[in-house]
Design brief:
This protein has 334 residues and is α+β, with helices and mostly antiparallel strands. Helix content is 19%, strand content 40%.
Length: 334
């Protein structure tokens, strides 16, 4: 590494986002999936430096801004985490919407500023509400999202038969009622949710092949979302926790996860277009979500979802590597 890595840190609902502002080499031209492959194959040591200890931690999340390829995109982003690179991240979109306005990457509007963000899953439109000339709440409309598999059953060694859905909200998730694992939000430790969710993720990955109509690179199970079972529309909030990548725990309600849940709810007739739900995370932070439109994704009946939340700054840093540091490239301790 020739120079320091500089970052701005934000969080959305408690979930961190480390935005890279300097230190990465220029990437070759190409599609965003080609850029992601190049970063994965040639620059992965930089992800580990930023995400892993001693500069990060097992649940750190990052964003690398790259040159957009799609027409109309204001910026493009590669998402990174403890295991690698994801296709979509709603909490990051909310943070990047505010960041783009604050940094002048897009001109600020009077009431709403639109920021078009190219993600590996496609183009996502973020709308940044302006209050007293400053960005406040950010909403985004998802890529087409759909219920991929309904009421599947697998037998897990510790818990027996577990019923779940698989839905796509920019990434694929298994969706399961936490009560099947004997778990209750607010009573049981997060570690118990992690164990259950990770077990289901691994079982689904081994048993059920996924497919996406746009690109094979999108067809992988990102994680499992355990819910409180309140899927039918209600004025009461519903709570969930998302465990993704290598047992990483989302502190926010998970933007792409909320989208996946809304796609499953709509397919089951549990929510209509325009009805708003409040989704709570393990930190108590909240996103609002609603079905924005009905559409298709290949052969799948699909929706787009609007998800809203707020992001805040938490710091900025400059990271260096000393030649004699044997742990300079990072490590994880759980």
């Amino acid at each position: 590494m020739s120079g320091p890595l500089t970052v701005v840190d934000m969080h959305t609902g408690g979930e961190p986002l480390r935005i890279v502002t300097g230190g990465y080499p220029d990437l070759p031209r190409g599609t965003i999936l080609e850029k992601r492959a190049h970063v994965r194959d040639n620059l992965d040591h930089l992800r580990k430096i930023l995400m892993f200890e001693p500069r990060g931690h097992a649940d750190m999340y990052g964003a690398l801004l790259v040159e957009p390829d799609l027409p109309g995109a204001d910026l493009a982003v590669l998402f990174m985490h403890n295991e690698g690179y994801s296709t979509m991240c709603g909490h990051a979109i909310i943070a990047l919407g505010r960041y783009a306005v604050d940094q002048g990457l897009v001109p600020a509007g009077e009431d709403v500023t639109v920021v078009n963000i190219e993600c590996p899953c496609g183009l996502v439109r973020a709308e940044v509400a302006m209050r007293d000339g400053r960005p406040a709440e950010v909403s985004f409309e998802s890529v087409p999202s759909f219920l991929f598999a309904r009421d599947r059953v697998l037998t897990l060694v510790k818990w027996g038969k577990v019923t779940f859905d698989i839905a796509y909200g920019g990434a694929f998730y298994a969706l399961a009622d936490a009560r099947q694992f004997g778990l209750k939000f607010g009573r049981d430790p997060v570690a118990a949710f992690v164990e259950a969710a990770d077990s289901l993720t691994r079982a689904v990955q081994a048993a059920i092949p996924l497919g996406h109509p746009d690109a094979p690179d999108l067809a992988f199970l990102y994680g499992t979302i355990l819910t409180d079972g309140r899927d039918a529309w209600s004025e009461q909030p519903t709570r969930n926790v998302c465990v993704f990548a290598d047992r990483q725990v989302d502190r926010s309600p998970t933007g792409s996860g909320v989208t996946a849940r809304l796609a499953a709810m709509q397919a089951r007739g549990q929510i209509a277009a325009g009805q708003e739900r409040i989704f709570l995370s393990i930190t108590g932070s909240r996103f609002s979500g609603r079905v924005a439109s009905l559409t298709r994704a290949g052969s799948h009946s699909a929706i787009t979802a609007t998800v809203s939340g707020r992001a805040f700054y938490s710091g900025k840093a400059e990271f260096v590597i000393e030649d004699e540091d044997p742990l300079a490239e990072g490590f994880l301790v759980r």
